[in-house]
Design goal:
The complex is a heterodimer of chains A (about 140) and B (about 110). Chain A has about 140 residues and is of the alpha+beta class. Chain A has a single domain, classed as Heat Shock Protein 90. In chain A, about 35% of the residues lie in helices and about 30% in strands. Chain A has a 5-stranded antiparallel sheet with strand order 1-2-3-5-4, covered by helices on one side. Chain A is globular and about 40 Å long. The two termini of chain A are about 20 Å apart. Chain B is α/β, with parallel strands linked by helices and about 110 residues long. In chain B, helix 1 links the parallel strand 2 and strand 3. Chain B is built from 4 helices and 5 strands, in the order E-E-H-E-H-E-H-E-H. Chain B is globular and about 30 Å long. Chain B has one domain: 2-Layer Sandwich (Transcription Regulator spoIIAA). Classes of the chains: A alpha+beta (about 140), B alpha/beta (about 110). The interface between A and B is medium-sized, with 33 and 29 residues.
């Protein structure tokens, strides 16, 4: 089963993204907690792209494809903005984030803690971020 | 969609969050807290009973004020998180940095 959506690079599209994921994440092996956390991780990646790679330019877009397999689910996020490889991003210490009164930086921590594997590649101007979650049977 | 309603009770300024907080609307939460601090509030309660979802944009707003709350001796408490939303706080370890209570009664009495 395959599902995909294209969202434009504005933060108001995030509600649309959540709606799509609510309709797509219906596998019985996923608990309500799993569904919310997977939605959150995908949204965090897309929000980062919208804000940091595309400067909220509503003419740019992001493609998300959800690929379901018996043992795992893969979220493939493609865009053509400034490449940002979150694998290079070191998880900040939470106490440091608090001390610096920072609002950002938590999203990538969430993605890294929720997902089992993260892949990133950039080819011919197209960036692909793959978020993989293995099912616990 | 996010609605924030403010009220005062037992010396606390309560912000009632309803809906979903994400990067498109976290600025509303930010401004609401900022205003309470600017107005000199010394006790802020966040009612999350009707909060269905919060992304890092909203969590970051809370995080960014924790230091101010400490410096200004502001009593800041969160209550009424659903199990699903509370799990998100726990993933980040925020439950160890913030005072989180199951309901308003417990929050007010501790």
């Amino acid at each position: 089963m395959e599902n995909h959506i294209t969202i434009y690079c504005q933060t108001t599209a995030l509600a649309e993204l959540r709606y799509f994921l609510r309709k797509t994440l219906t596998m019985p092996c996923l608990s309500e907690n799993d569904k919310l956390q997977l939605t959150l991780a995908v949204e965090e990646v897309c929000a980062n792209l919208i804000i940091h790679s595309h400067d909220c330019n509503a003419e740019d877009y992001i493609n998300l494809e959800v690929k379901e397999y018996p043992e795992k689910i893969i979220f493939e996020i493609k865009d053509q903005g400034k490449a940002f490889n979150m694998l290079d991003y070191e998880i900040p210490d939470l106490v440091k984030v608090k001390g610096e009164k920072r609002k950002g930086g938590l999203g990538i921590i969430l993605v890294k803690k929720i997902m089992d594997e993260i892949e990133f590649e950039s080819t011919s101007g197209v960036n692909t971020c793959r978020l993989i979650k293995w099912f616990q049977h | 969609m996010l609605n924030i309603e403010g009220l005062e009770e037992n010396g606390y300024h309560i912000l009632i969050l309803e809906g979903e907080v994400d990067a498109s609307n976290s600025v509303i939460l930010d401004e609401s807290i900022q205003k309470l601090i600017a107005d000199g509030s010394l006790a802020i309660l966040i009612d999350c009973k009707e909060l269905a979802y919060i992304s890092s944009a909203g969590l970051g707003v809370f995080m960014s004020y924790l230091e101010d709350f400490q410096e200004k001796d502001i009593d800041f408490k969160i209550f009424g998180l659903s199990e699903k939303v509370f799990e998100v706080f726990k993933i980040l370890g925020l439950h160890q940095l913030m005072a989180i209570f199951p309901d308003k009664e417990t929050a007010l009495s501790s």
